[in-house]
Automatic annotation (TrEMBL):
SUPFAM superfamilies: Nucleoside hydrolase. Gene3D superfamilies: Ribonucleoside hydrolase-like. Residues 4-301 form the Inosine/uridine-preferring nucleoside hydrolase domain. GO terms for molecular function: hydrolase activity. Keywords: Glycosidase, Hydrolase. This is Nucleoside hydrolase. The keyword Hydrolase applies. InterPro entries: I/U_nuclsd_hydro_CS, Inosine/uridine_hydrolase_dom, IUNH, Ribo_hydro-like. CDD domains: nuc_hydro_IU_UC_XIUA.
Length: 310
């Protein structure tokens, strides 16, 4: 089994990522850490606890992380997409267990240093503040983790700004820290996630499954479709975050290319941009890759199989 820590801000698509990780037999969730992003830290942490309960992950620690970016005053929450609660319109059990006493960064360090080297994959699917803090507090985690598979960025496209994707834009300094460390990083950016559309066909197939997890997923995708249509004009919503989990489980469902990536954190118009050098083959020692093409059918089949398991 592949061991992962999911650092998230649920959030509709974060919820899908958690369901996939919980229901797939080839992945073991060592912990869930939370970060302010789609909503405030308090709200996303409550959501994480409740999703964990629904997905039978309540034996797994949930550790809350940073309530704000490293340098900037506050996150710009995405209430226009995810609602005031971060998961508006969805039914979840109330969680009857509490968060880990440790900060997310400390939890990540403890877990990575406890497990054998090269066995833990970090899966950040929100702003990168917790990961940046962890690496500054304990630099040895860079050599110790297997890889960092993150949802964020894009090859010179953005969603929150012309050139910036939400997770990177919310804490560009943290993203800069994370990308400059020499651990293997796979960037699952908008180029890839814009192919992970929840089509009517996919939604119908999920609606026919008789599990609590599938019913919840149906609500999530219905709301996500509505808000993406209303605020961004998408006919079908791109379900970003589970793409990172899917890559960990089966990287062959994506085309990935090695390329140097740097984060712009001082640009006048380009703050939060991931600058990807695709001009020529990457140098031997390049530690970053970007995901470019998704097998849509295999991706959704994997999610559907996971919710059937829960
Ligand atoms: C990312 O931003 C968030 O709103 C989503 O959960 C996803 O992680 C997409 O840009
Ligand atoms: Ca997210």
């Amino acid at each position: 089994k592949k061991k992962i820590i999911i650092d998230c801000d649920p959030g509709y698509d974060d919820a899908v990522a958690l369901l996939l990780a919980a229901g797939n037999p080839n992945v073991e969730v060592l912990g869930i850490t939370t970060i302010a992003g789609n909503q405030t830290l308090e709200k996303v942490t409550r959501n994480a606890l409740r999703i964990a309960k629904l997905a039978h992950l309540d034996h797994v620690s949930v550790a809350a992380g940073s309530a704000r970016p490293l340098l900037r005053d506050q996150v710009v929450v995405a209430a226009n997409i995810h609602g005031e609660s971060g998961l508006d319109g969805c039914t979840l059990p109330e969680a009857d267990y509490t968060v880990d006493q440790r900060n997310a960064a400390q939890f990540i360090i403890d877990t990575v240093m406890r497990e054998p080297p090269q066995t833990v994959t970090l899966v950040p699917i929100g702003p990168l503040t917790n990961i940046a803090l962890a690496v500054r507090m304990e630099p040895r985690i860079v050599e110790r983790v297997k890889e960092v598979v993150l949802m964020g960025g894009g090859c010179h496209i953005g969603n929150i700004k012309p050139m910036a994707e939400f997770n990177i834009e919310n804490d560009p300094e943290a993203a800069h820290i994370v990308f400059e460390e020499k651990w293997p990083i796979v960037m699952i950016g908008l180029d890839l996630t814009y192919q992970a559309l929840a089509t009517a066909e996919v939604k119908n197939e999920i609606a026919a499954i008789d599990t609590d997890a599938a019913r919840f997923l149906t609500q999530v995708l219905a709301r996500f479709s509505e808000t993406y249509k209303r605020s961004k004009g998408f006919d079908e919503p791109p379900v970003h975050d589970p793409c990172a989990v899917a890559y960990v489980i089966d990287p062959t469902m994506m085309q990935v290319r090695k390329a140097p990536v740097h984060v712009e954190y001082r640009g006048l118009y380009t703050n939060g941009m991931t600058v990807v050098d695709l001009r020529k083959p990457a140098p031997e020692d390049c530690h970053t890759s970007v995901a470019l093409k998704l097998d849509h059918k295999r991706f959704w089949d994997m999610i559907i199989a996971a919710v059937k398991n829960l």
